[in-house]
Amino acid sequence: xxxxxxxxxxxxxxxxxxxxxxxxxxxxxxxxxxxxxxxxxxxxxxxxxxxxxxxxxxxxxxxxxxxxxxxxxxxxxxxxxxxxxxxxxxxxxxxxxxxxxxxxxxxxxxxxxxxxxxxxxxxxxxxxxxxxxxxxxxxxxxxxxxxxxxxxxxxxxxxxxxxxxxxxxxxxxxxxxxxxxxxxxxxxxxxxxxxxxxxxxxxxxxxxxxxxxxxxxxxxxxxxxxxxxxxxxxxxxxxxxxxxxxxxxxxxxxxxxxxxxxxxxxxxxxxxxxxxxxxxxxxxxxxxxxxxxxxxxxxxxxxxxxxxxxxxxxxxxxxxxxxxxxxxxxxxxxxxxxxxxxxxxxxxxxxxxxxxxxxxxxxxxxxxxxxxxxxxxxxxxxxxxxxxxxxxxxxxxxxxxxxxxxxxxxxxxxxxxxxxxxxxxxxxxxxxxxxxxxxxxxxxxx
Amino acid sequence: xxxxxxxxxxxxxxxxxxxxxxxxxxxxxxxxxxxxxxxxxxxxxxxxxxxxxxxxxxxxxxxxxxxxxxxxxxxxxxxxxxxxxxxxxxxx
Lengths: 446, 92
Description:
The complex is a heterodimer. Chain A is mainly α.
């Protein structure tokens, strides 16, 4: 296996196999291969029975790159002998391995290592043997199982009911087992009665707590009280049931307790916030948690909106400042105090939208200052701010109403970004005195 | 060239009868294959080497049935010509 057989080995084999002298074998073999080469040299393909076909194949020139120098080099083409094994040869080679391979696939023990899959006969035989042995082992392993199954089917059948009725040890068929079962039944019954007693106690406790709860909730929400009564009824029904349901009233009581504490908390929250609270949520225990969350959620949203408003206001002011760079130098100088001086930008700005924005932002800033002001209209500022954002873009209304301290130069600067448009404005307008335009005069814009 | 033609040539060269050549030829091929079947590589000086090659098993996908099939590994006989033969063939 994996040996390298030389020409000499082949000759020896040939001499043994065909019963000729070694010399004879050697000369013949040499002639054999020489002839092949000769035939191939003529460019003809040659078919040898039982081995395969030899063929002369020309390999063309190909380009490559010298890795060390990076130079492009041409690898010259050459002729080579291609060999295709005969199907019978391949079949023969695989016939031995195939059985082994197949079994290995079935057994999922197939290894990708090719070295292990040699076509050596002995190996194959070994593998076959191994497979057979494995099978035998498997059978021998299985049989005892089967035997045990056959031998002791009754205990297994008895065991199954044991599993379903936990804690009941018995053999159904025997008379003792009946007594056992009876005992078990008695015990279970006792347990159940005890549990019922517990449930009753729990219910009494629950009723007491409910009364407390009622008192607490009376001034806040009468709905809850009604609900508790309802649940009390439900609990009453539950109580009458078997021990299986005994847990439910207890759980309800526990939930009630939680609810109570939450109710107290909420009242505190009301006092603190001092704002009209949306109607108290359903007194169902599941929805208590969300209601509490909602309060915080709304506060959070208001905060966010306020911050957003301030942010938008700042952006808007910056845009305005850029537009009015030469005239209003004070505005961009102090962008860090948006709330302290909110009226400043509104004064010089002549846009109809500007004051509105300021109001909004002011309101938001105030909100930011006093977080406790929870208003239901917190969502409304959002669309407004988005509108404000968009409005500076269209620009250039058709007319402009003169305001105090404004001049044509300033208008020109504002709408066209340059003082040179004053002439264009003058051209389409008629002023008594362009240097002194009265406040409130409508100036057409080109 | 067919096997028959080839054997005729060999018989001419070795001055042996055709039957004898046939016999010995099959014996020679048998000897080589035997060596291969044992997992050995057979090198014939001045000609080349024969070697059993294991083609690894692979998974193939049948797109029509959308199933994967395992093609088991397969041993083939590979031949590589010797350097001497290569130089001889590429002399011209």
